[in-house]
Amino acid sequence: MHDKVCTAIAKVGSAPVMQWAREKGFPLYEESYVLCNVAAENGNMDILKWAHENGCSWNERTCANAAMGGHLGVLRYARENSCPWDKYTCANAAQHGHLATLKYAHEQGCPWDKWTCCYAAKNGHLETLKYAHEQGCPWDKGTCNVAAKSGQFDVLKYAHENGCHWNEETCMYAAGSGHLDILKYLHENGCPWDKYTCVNAAHAQNGHLATLKYAHENGCPWDEYTCCMAAKGGYLEILKYAHENGCPWDEGTCIHAAQFGHLEVLKFAHEHGCPWDKRTCYWAAYYGHLETLKYAHAIAVLGIVLRSWQPHGSMGAGMSSNG
Questions:
Q1: Quick check: 222 and 199 in contact, CB under 8 A?
Q2: Taking the chain (323 residues) in consecutive chunks of 10 residues, what is each chunk's mean pLDDT?
Q3: Dihedral sign (CA 248, 252, 258, 259)
Q4: Spatial separation of the C-alpha atoms in residues 13 and 133, rounded to whole Å
Q5: Which run of H or E residues covers position 271?
Q6: What is the value of pTM for the model shown?
Q7: In Å, what is the CA distance from 154 to each residue of 77, 137, 161, 220, 232?
Q8: Distances (CA, A) of 240 to 152, 177, 202, 203, 260
Q9: 127 class by beta-carbon count within 10 Å (0-12 exposed, 13-18 middle, 19+ buried)
Q10: pLDDT tens, 115-160?
Q11: What is the dihedral sign for C-alpha 200, 205, 209, 211?
Q12: What SUPFAM superfamilies would the database entry show (predicted)?
């Protein structure tokens, strides 16, 4: 416990308190740079100066931590006293929208890479992203992907209009997060999509029916995996929509409904002709979904499958027909 006293002081304490603690024998961490890193993260200039002047080491994380908190004065002090830095100083400043800190770091020669743009985009820091891009910071599809996933419409629009690459993953992330406005923008502006746009809409937390409808009605492909993932999540309305609109399904739909105990989903699938096999019973039993197992066994007349069959490999490997 005593080894944490000095670290606690580094967060909010002062140099005189730290000096007293050291004189009383409270130890530093074995890695003395921890003290500088904690002080920098919390913007505690007083402690950072004390630590540096009393022989504590520091490293690249010291600058990165100062940038993360937007503590420009702390960052300046560290650099003016030869503390090293790396690309994470810029990335951390961008992630938290600390534009002045990012400008200082870049103007002083701090390296950056695509993650600076990516982190700025993820958290919607448009001005930070603009600065980075205008100053030649690289970006790639990750910038558009994180903007789509986190619902940062203005950021995505800026990135696209300024030549940032996107691909099928961008639509997939928008659909999986339920950002219908972003998905529409992507599609209307030529962003490609594939079956995983529908899969992610079907599988996302609570399911995104409106997003799935838009994708399907505008020609996005789907396959059995869409129904499978809807069943896995227990999203009956999504499964109904997909099936009623011609989305194919296979044994995986019933398997996943059984595996996760979604009895109503399993009932709907079976009653509407979805194929199943003995794996439906196996996975219901394996995960302890008794009512699901009872239903499947009673109407499928599968027999005592658990005595005679043990699965090898994945759920979908080498298994056969309806039964």
A1: yes
A2: 52 52 52 81 89 89 97 97 98 98 99 98 98 98 98 99 98 97 98 98 92 98 98 98 99 98 98 95 96 88 48 45 42
A3: negative
A4: 39
A5: helix 263-271
A6: 0.83
A7: 35, 19, 11, 24, 33
A8: 31, 21, 11, 14, 18
A9: exposed
A10: 999 999 999 999 999 999 999 999 999 999 999 999 999 999 999 9
A11: negative
A12: Ankyrin repeat
Token pair, residue 166, equals 């996107």
User: Which tokens go with 263?
Assistant: 């009895």
Going by C-beta distance under 8 Å and a sequence separation of 6 or more, which residues neighbour residue 226?
Answer: 195, 198, 199, 202, 212, 242, 247
Inter-residue contact 302 to 296 (CB < 8 Å): yes
Kindly tell me the sign of the dihedral angle through the C-alpha atoms of 237, 243, 247, 251. Answer: positive
Amino acid at the residue 274: C
Question: Whose CA is closest to 185, among 157, 226, 214?
Answer: 157
